[in-house]
Protein 1
Amino acid sequence: MQPSRDIFRLIEIMAALREPETGCPWDLEQDFGSIAPYTIEEAYEVADAIERDDAIDLKEELGDLLLQVVYHAQLAEERGLFTFDDVVEAITRKMIRRHPHVFGDAEARSARSAKGQWETIKAQEKAERFELRQSAATTRLSGAATADITERAGHLDQVPATLPALTLALKIQKKAADVGFDWDQPEPILAKIDEELGELAEVVAVKDDDAAEDEMGDLLFSVVNLARFHGIDPEKALRRCVRKFRDRFGFIEDVLARRGRTLQDASLDEMEALWAAAKGRDGTSSAGG
């Protein structure tokens, strides 16, 4: 089998890897749950290549991410749930439907700014998914019987719970803000952060680990709220901070290596002095992060 620019060659490769008699033993052991962490990891690696402005890595990581889509589609086809073609058809239908100002008739194009059009389209899609779930023999990836779908779909249920915690908090807060559950000034948010920080200090002082975790979550949630109010993506901001930390720590390691020393050899005072030098190198004041 030869490489190809045709997406169907990738589908053939995935099917061959999952062939019971001749496939790859590791691939044959996998299911949706075991592959999901790799899917998340590949998405992060795509984002990392973009942040590093590396086109070569981005090409490779996009291929790895595409493989994840093909992998899940193969698993679904084996269970009679759907195929890769169904995935493509579903997303093309969604994109055409959600952009009537681009793909619609003359009337739709002239109504591109019609108020509520986007929400109306999404509501229609939600209703269709509900009907599809009601009529499908099963919607469970595991093959277990599907329970009757009678529960109410909550306003926040559209936000996937598996998102990274900072992004999840941000999206949940935005969703709540859509219906007016929000502060209109930053001062109450700052006061809430101070309150949560005080409550965290109290439970830490009495060594209540469970309560400390709970209060830490409340504090982080409040910080995300402040970031959202100022239009800052907390996930992006924290990744930027981590990248800065890694660069500065790498500077410490490099300087020590040039001196014939290791991190283990250095004292904390020496590393802190080099940290200050790293901050000066990247133009950060002593009061900066």
Protein 2
Amino acid sequence: MTRHNRVLKTASDVLIETRAYARAGLLGNPSDGFFGKTLSISVRNFGASVTLWQSPELHIEQQEADANTFRSIFHLVDTVGQIGYNGGIPLIKAAIRKFTTYCLEEGIRLPNRNFTIRYSSSIPRQVGLSGSSAIIVATMRALMQFYDVEIPLEYLPTLVMKSETEELGITAGLQDRVIQCYEGCVYMDFQRQLIESRGFGNYERVDPQALPKLYLAYNTDMSKVSGKVHNDVKARFERGEPLVVDTLSQIADLARQGKEAVEKQDYSTLNELINHNFDLRTRIYNIHPVNMQMIETARRLGASASFTGSGGSIIGIYRDDEMLNRLFVDLQKLNARVIKPYVV
């Protein structure tokens, strides 16, 4: 039994419980969507859990995020701002459909058994910590266990991604799904030839104990920031715009350098790489002022700082407890919460 799965036997049934954790990109963001390289960690401070048990009919339990009853129009506005227009049920439906399709295509016969499934999540929403894909990963793990199906670990992230891109029309890359399936710290190489020929890249585990002192900060009020910063990097990359192609190539190579720095425990170099990752990003992406303020505040205090994903959360190296305490205080003034990511 893996550490993220549990089977609880009761007098009347068997409960399957699975979990998947938040993630933070350390280096290489956002090159994973452009056949690049990344170095990422799973953040066990936050997670999504799924409970599944056999039942006469297939039933997905509605949670608070799925409710359609509100106290007022302002309650509706705040709720949509915090969790989006859809809760977790569309994610679970997409995971179930993609799992079933995979089994049919692989000639795996599923027994005629139904189940009830329930989910919960403590991953902050709308701040780039991959709460949606965590629900899908946990659902896939529960389905694999319930139907006794083994999906190869290297392909599972691709199946999770397809649940979002093909079933729900969500733009998604492989990085988040890889680290949530593998956990710990993982170096990923998404070279085009591998992705297009077999559907997944090369994924290499890195010893989390070699990581330096990391902090993670996420803005607790990002959902109330009006409007989204427009970016058209994908179209510019596909047109072959030199600035975009060259910048993303440089960002990808930072992940390779970062992997070597972690293995050598060369934290001074790693610190510089994290800062450089974000600085390169600003060449081709528009950065929301709220996010920029978080980055600048952390750097002013002596810490390195870069995005964990697409924005809303930052990650970096801090020197000592005094610096960490200053990060707590100064980032709190920006409505940002600071944590020490727990990586196993």
Protein 3
Amino acid sequence: MITAPALAALPGIRHAFFTREGGVSEGIYAGLNCGFGSGDEEWRVAENRGRAMERLGLPASALATLHQVHSPTVVEATAGWPRGQSPRADAVVVTAPGTAAGILTADCTPVLFADAAAGVVAAAHAGWRGALEGVLGATVEAMTARGAVRGRITAAIGPCIGQPSYEVGAEFRDRFTAVDAGFDRFFAPGVRPGKFQFDLPAFAAMRLEEAGVGTVERQSWADTVPEPERFFSYRRATLRGEPDYGRALAAIALAG
């Protein structure tokens, strides 16, 4: 698992960006696939999630993950939801010690947040759509509504698709520049004519800074696409013609 130094330095905070290493799944899901939404065997996913929580010193039932829909919707969790009852949202806030806020990714940006002094943590799933539509700012708003202070919040960006791997078309770039012409700076010329390379983690970092987050941790960045032994990747699976892909877990909790 990967930890962010800025979060690791905070008292009473447990967190991890889990890689695909160490689980019981096999085949295209090999390793620590934590996504029930994949086609993997459910018992394997449940075992993987339990192993991940054990690494954080928590029971499997403490993990609160979502039915992710690429939205700016944020919810609060006081415990893990029963299987099949997770709310449709893309960020979860926790103030209850011993409950882990978790999200799943396979190229999208996982972001973990904490204000240790206020006792508020959160996890957000920010793909391009969620990042553009404001899920990260909405997460900060939800945290401040529960006592966090913007300038005291630490946010860490975990492994996601990197700019060299994220080729997009002109219509994709146009979605961003239609919102703000200045967003063009997140697109580099592509190798192929008419294509561009989008810098998703840099865009997410900008959104966090825009929301007034005090510390944005960038040391945990890694490109998920070119490292098949470490990371799951939707784009890599698509390019290979694979029918599905595993999901990596990122989670954060207040020590009980």
Protein 4
Amino acid sequence: MPLFLPPSKAKPPPPPLKTDDRRAVLVGLGVWAVLLVVALAVPEVRSTGEGRWLGSCVAGLALGLVGLAHVHRRGRRSR
């Protein structure tokens, strides 16, 4: 199998898939929200003084909101 094909023999790239990016981001936000509630409900997480679990959940929520804004702007721009 040759590593390089001349443009005359190469196949055209497939069309991009239609995906619902907003739904994927919302599912991720929901998962981070549930994990935050669980981390707040478990006393061992709060009593150790380590903020890794809570910080990770808050960062996941914040980045999910940034991603949701990005998906919204990209969708509005492509219309």
